[in-house]
């Protein structure tokens, strides 16, 4: 018989599956704060998927939950008193309407350099490229125009 040390958890093949992307495959790295979508798809007809946070660092939370098929939520974490890079494991659970569950853990790394002090708003983790705005030219003083004599 197999020993308990070599036993692995068997997951029902009909349990919801995490969708990669938008769910990170196994790691997620950000400068100052983490924010990413976790999504799972159910395999049963008329399924409804609920995503929940099983474990993770203090202050991490789920927002904008969508209980449907696929189900999704956004994970947010802004570490406090960050004095350099830190990596934490965050685990999520997707559960379908029949009670089948699947778990996914992601290693989240916050680089922590150039971040605002605790209590200050953090810059977004992903920035959309913006077109440079034209800079206004300094106003030059207008010289009074001299009148030209009428041409004959």
TrEMBL record:
Bias (Low complexity) ranges: 125-152
Region (Disordered), start-end ranges: 111-152
Protein name: Uncharacterized protein
Organism in which the protein naturally occurs: Hemiselmis andersenii (Cryptophyte alga)
């Amino acid at each position: 018989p197999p020993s308990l040390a070599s036993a692995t958890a068997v997951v029902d093949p009909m349990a919801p599956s995490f969708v990669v992307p938008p769910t990170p495959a196994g790691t997620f790295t950000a400068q100052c704060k983490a924010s990413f979508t976790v999504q799972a798809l159910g395999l049963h007809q008329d399924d409804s998927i609920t995503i929940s946070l099983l474990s993770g660092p203090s202050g991490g939370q789920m927002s904008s939950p969508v209980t449907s098929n696929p189900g999704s939520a956004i994970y947010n974490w802004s570490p406090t008193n960050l004095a350099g890079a830190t990596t934490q494991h965050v685990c999520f659970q997707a559960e379908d309407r029949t009670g089948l569950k699947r778990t996914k853990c992601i290693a989240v790394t916050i680089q922590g350099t150039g971040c605002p002090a605790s209590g200050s708003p953090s810059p977004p983790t992903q920035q959309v490229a913006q077109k440079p705005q034209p800079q206004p030219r300094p106003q030059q003083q207008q010289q009074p125009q001299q009148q030209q004599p009428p041409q004959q």
